[in-house]
Amino acid sequence: MPEPLTEHPAGRVRTWLAHHGFSIVASLGRLVQRPLASLLTITVMALALTLPAALGLALENLARLQGSVQASHDVTVFLVPGTPAAQVEALVARLRARTDVQQVQRVSPGQALDHLRREPDFAAAIDALGEEAARAALPEVLHLVPRGDASTLVASVQVLPGVERVQYDAVWQQRLQHWLALGTRLVQVLAVLLGLGAVLVVGNTVRLDIQARSEEISVLLMLGASEGFVRRPFLYLGLWYGLAAGALALALLRVIGILVQPPLDALAASYGSRFTLQGPALPDSLALLLVAMLLGWLGALLAVGRHLRENRPMEE
């Protein structure tokens, strides 16, 4: 009797690769055949990806803005009104000799008075008070540009003779750091929750597709098809959903960046800083696409796995 035919291992590999290629094309075709349903699923999933990505991107840019503002933030030293000019000059020379001071700018009472006169409200008050009295009430002001951390500088300048008050608002920077840390944690929690939502959305869409093909799946299983053979087209369908949603999320992030840039320019200018909003870098964009595809694949895996467990042929 002739020996039974057995398939060569190379033939099995070619068959396996051919079915993968067929599943990729067929799943894409099923996605295109239902444009409205597919668009709704992709849009919902893209919004779920865009929200945490946009918040995370905003936190990254806010951290950059904080560093830019902090680098340009100076220390303002108010001297006691009526301090002799010789003492002021000596103090300026002493501060310029410090290694932790990059620049010292002196603002005399006369310069401050001229600056205040440019404001209509202050000009009226100066005229009512009298120029000499207003000049005598204004102190000498020194603007210091520190090198590095200004904490030590502020503490040492505060005790110098003739110094009445040192203004360096570092508290807001510490508070901003705490807010950034809190925002980062909230973004992480939100990303997990919305990621689960995206998995459920894709899973429900794939489940509807599975139900429409339930008879076909049953026939394949009765003919001896493996669960991997049945599962494969739906997994690729989930990958297509994820890829399309990730691409749409990147496009939405780009639009958000264009809309946010003008008010951000005004905010940065108010702090004397030039700041440009940075979108997701190429590695971040690729990571977003991979995460979106993973979520789509996971949603499809859960849906088809449940169907196969519920409809597995009973063994005699």
TrEMBL record:
Residues 189-306 form the ABC3 transporter permease C-terminal domain. The keyword Transport does not apply. It is a multi-pass membrane protein. The chain crosses the membrane at residues 36-59, 186-206, 234-260, 286-304. InterPro entries: ABC3_permease_C, FtsX, FtsX_ECD, FtsX_proteobact-type. Belongs to the ABC-4 integral membrane protein family. FtsX subfamily. Part of the ABC transporter FtsEX involved in cellular division. This is Cell division protein FtsX.
